[in-house]
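Input record, target 12 of the design panel.
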């Protein structure tokens, strides 16, 4: 499985921010696949943001200040992350990954939120 993140790069504080993860090598609706979003702010550890599974069930981090929603588009074989009320605290490298008996990671995309 290969994953590729795409995001806006440099953005100003805004009501919403969206990232997408394009998957190849497996269909996102394939049985027992779990698709995750993780981020790493500068100088900090990894933070799990949420996930969506093979049955289109979402899971969200309760500690995330910027409320997030995760959706999928089976026609594009993509899953997306939308953050709300985006501030400079959301500056991070954003990763998508997959779990299906083992982990597969995207290379990450830098998102910088600055006014």
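The sequence produced for target 12 reads:
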């Amino acid at each position: 499985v290969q994953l590729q993140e795409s995001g806006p790069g440099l953005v100003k504080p805004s009501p919403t921010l969206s990232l997408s993860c394009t998957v190849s090598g497996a269909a996102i609706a394939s049985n027992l696949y779990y698709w995750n979003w993780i981020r790493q702010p500068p100088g900090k550890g990894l933070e799990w943001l949420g996930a969506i599974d093979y049955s289109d069930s979402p899971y969200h981090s309760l500690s995330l200040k910027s409320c997030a929603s995760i959706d999928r588009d089976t026609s594009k074989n993509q899953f997306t992350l939308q953050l709300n009320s985006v501030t400079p605290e959301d500056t991070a490298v954003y990763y998508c990954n997959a779990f299906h008996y083992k982990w597969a990671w995207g290379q990450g995309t830098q998102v910088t939120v600055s006014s």
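DSSP finds no helices and eleven strands in the chain.
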